[in-house]
Design goal:
mainly alpha, Rossmann fold, 6% strand
């Protein structure tokens, strides 16, 4: 997001929390059994942006949701929670025209089976979450960018670090370019 801020000359606040998921779904893997994952994006977004009052909100969640090996973590719940965040931002006064939803970024499929409990991903599951992000944006009127496909079209595995999951510097540039194409 720093690349976007530098390009657009925006003041930026990165409100993401590393290693978490979007969903506030009750699950059984990494949190207290029967609870939501701590610091999940759905439950914490308002506290992380309420004092800032942004002009734009760029949402990029889902890669960890895709990978979390828990049957309760679904593309439908992800779509619901993205929609709730968009609607909450609008209720707080942000124009829906200034909310950009990015699909979960691409990752090398070789990384889907690594790092339990983050070993539940697959290409089919990943694409279901991509579709969930698109559906949430369409249902709420937010702008959508298919970051997943953008990364495939602009380098694929060459944009992913050696862990087969996280974007490398070129991958971060590709993600920024995807967002800049719609901002």
């Amino acid at each position: 997001m720093n690349i976007i801020a530098d390009t657009k000359k925006w003041d930026i606040r990165n409100a993401g929390i590393t290693g978490t998921i979007l969903q506030n779904t009750t699950q059984n893997t990494v949190a207290v059994i029967g609870g939501a994952v701590v610091n999940n994006g759905r439950d914490t977004y308002e506290a992380r942006v309420s004092d800032y009052k942004p002009t734009y909100a760029l949402l990029l969640y889902g890669l960890n949701d895709v990978r979390l090996n828990d049957a309760a973590i679904t593309a439908a719940a992800y779509e619901n929670d993205i929609s709730e965040i968009i609607n909450g931002l609008v209720s707080d006064g942000l124009s829906v025209a200034n909310i950009i939803v990015g699909s979960p970024p691409y990752m090398n499929p070789a990384g889907y089976g690594l790092f339990a409990p983050w070993d539940g991903g697959s290409t089919v599951r990943h694409e279901a979450f991509v579709a969930g992000a698109a559906a949430a944006a369409a249902a709420t009127g937010a702008t959508y960018i298919d970051v997943y496909q953008w990364m495939i079209d602009n380098g694929g595995n060459a944009l992913i670090s050696g862990d087969n999951v996280h974007p490398n510097d070129a991958g971060h540039s590709a993600i920024a370019d995807a967002f800049l194409s719609v901002v």
